Amino acid sequence: MTPEENFMRKIEAEEKIEPKDWMPDTYRKNLIRQISQHAHSEVIGMQPEGNYITRAPSLRRKAVLISKVQDEAGHGLYLYSAAETLGISRSEMIEALQTGKAKYSSIFNYPVLTWADIAAIGWLVDGAAIVNQVSLQRTSYGPYSRGMIRICKEESFHQRQGYEAMLALAKGSPEQKAMAQDALNRFYWPALMMFGPHDSESAHSQKSMEWKIKRETNDDLRQKFIDQTVPQIEVLGLEHPDKALKWNEERGHYDSSDLNWDEFWSVINGNGHCNRQRLEHHIAAHDEGEWVRDAITAYNEKKRAKKAQNAA
Amino acid sequence: MSVTEKLELFEVFVRSKRGLDHKHVGSLHAEDHEQALEYARDCYTRRSEGVSIWVVKSADICASQEDDADCFYDPSDDKPYRHATYYVLPDPVNNM
Question: Topology of domain A3-260, per CATH?
Answer without folding.
Answer: Ferritin (1.20.1260)
